[in-house]
Structures are given as C-alpha cells and as structure tokens.
Amino acid sequence: MVFQEEHITEIGKKLHQAGMKLTPQRRATVNTLLKYQTKHLSAEELFTLIKLEEPEIGLATVYRTLDLLTELQIVERVTFDDGVARYDLRRADQQHFHHHLLCSVCGKVEEIHEDLLGEVENEVLRKYGFTVQDHRLTFHGVCEACSRKERYQDQG
C-alpha cells in the first residue's frame, strides 16, 4: 500500500507540473490501474471496476483521464492480438516502457521489466544515427504452462 501511495504522489506531481490536479476521478482511475496493473485492462473494464468504488463516475471521464495520463506518459496504451486498446502504467524507475510476452494459445500476457534492448539501441544509433527515445516490444509465442500441457498431451 505504501508503494501505491508513493506512485500516486508521483503521478500527482506530474499532473501538477502539467498545470492539472489529481482530482478524485483521476485518483480513482490511477488507484484501479495500480490495483490491477498486471491485468492490462481496457477502458470499459477499468470503468466497471472504478464504478464499484466511485459510483458517480462516467465512462467519458474515464476515457478523458486515460487520454490525459497517456499524453503525460504516465500510462501506455497497448494493443494485443484482440485489437482492444488496453492501459498499462509506466514504471517511474524505468527509462523505457516494459516488454510483454503474449501466449498465442491461452492469451496470457506477462511483463518483462528488464530493458533487453540496450545493445540494439546502441546499434541503431551507431548504424543509422537515430536516437531511440522509447520502444515497445511484444514477444508472441507459447507460455510455460501451455508448453507443459502440450508436452504432457504428446506423451499421453
């Protein structure tokens, strides 16, 4: 819970620097994103969860809040194979957005928080003179649980 409050405080500072406030609706949205941060929720899913805590909030408010948080690079909009826009908090301690592992069998999404592309970025700079500011990477494949299940079925 301490981590969550620290994160909210940091987000409040970013909003203040942009001339905006951490309103109760924005706080509720951020709290829900933090609470379910590994779930990669859509705006509608977030709205449903926020509404449990803040019954008066509207879907349009959630969309506006997500747009603002995305613009301020507090949240990233990600889209996986289902084409649905989902929202993912950026970690303040990382220079780049984290990577994802997407299982093509069960649809599970896992996060990788290590920056695996440092050498690639250096090569892009050296070879093309292009300075990478950010990147997104999703690995598509089969998760460990599905791989085990496949091996088990092949043996049986």
Automatic annotation (TrEMBL):
<feature type="binding site">
    <location>
        <position position="146"/>
    </location>
    <ligand>
        <name>Zn(2+)</name>
    </ligand>
</feature>
<dbReference type="GO" id="GO:0000976">
    <property type="term" value="F:transcription cis-regulatory region binding"/>
</dbReference>
<dbReference type="InterPro" id="IPR002481">
    <property type="entry name" value="FUR"/>
</dbReference>
<keyword id="KW-0862">Zinc</keyword>
<dbReference type="InterPro" id="IPR036388">
    <property type="entry name" value="WH-like_DNA-bd_sf"/>
</dbReference>
<dbReference type="GO" id="GO:0003700">
    <property type="term" value="F:DNA-binding transcription factor activity"/>
</dbReference>
<comment type="similarity">
    <text>Belongs to the Fur family.</text>
</comment>
<keyword id="KW-0238">DNA-binding</keyword>
<keyword id="KW-0804">Transcription</keyword>
<feature type="binding site">
    <location>
        <position position="106"/>
    </location>
    <ligand>
        <name>Zn(2+)</name>
    </ligand>
</feature>
<keyword id="KW-0479">Metal-binding</keyword>
<feature type="binding site">
    <location>
        <position position="143"/>
    </location>
    <ligand>
        <name>Zn(2+)</name>
    </ligand>
</feature>
<feature type="binding site">
    <location>
        <position position="103"/>
    </location>
    <ligand>
        <name>Zn(2+)</name>
    </ligand>
</feature>
<feature type="binding site">
    <location>
        <position position="135"/>
    </location>
    <ligand>
        <name>Fe cation</name>
    </ligand>
</feature>
<dbReference type="GO" id="GO:0045892">
    <property type="term" value="P:negative regulation of DNA-templated transcription"/>
</dbReference>
<dbReference type="InterPro" id="IPR043135">
    <property type="entry name" value="Fur_C"/>
</dbReference>
<dbReference type="GO" id="GO:0008270">
    <property type="term" value="F:zinc ion binding"/>
</dbReference>
<dbReference type="Pfam" id="PF01475">
    <property type="entry name" value="FUR"/>
</dbReference>
<dbReference type="GO" id="GO:1900376">
    <property type="term" value="P:regulation of secondary metabolite biosynthetic process"/>
</dbReference>
<protein>
    <submittedName>
        <fullName>Ferric uptake regulation protein</fullName>
    </submittedName>
</protein>
<dbReference type="InterPro" id="IPR036390">
    <property type="entry name" value="WH_DNA-bd_sf"/>
</dbReference>
<keyword id="KW-0678">Repressor</keyword>
<keyword id="KW-0408">Iron</keyword>
<keyword id="KW-0805">Transcription regulation</keyword>
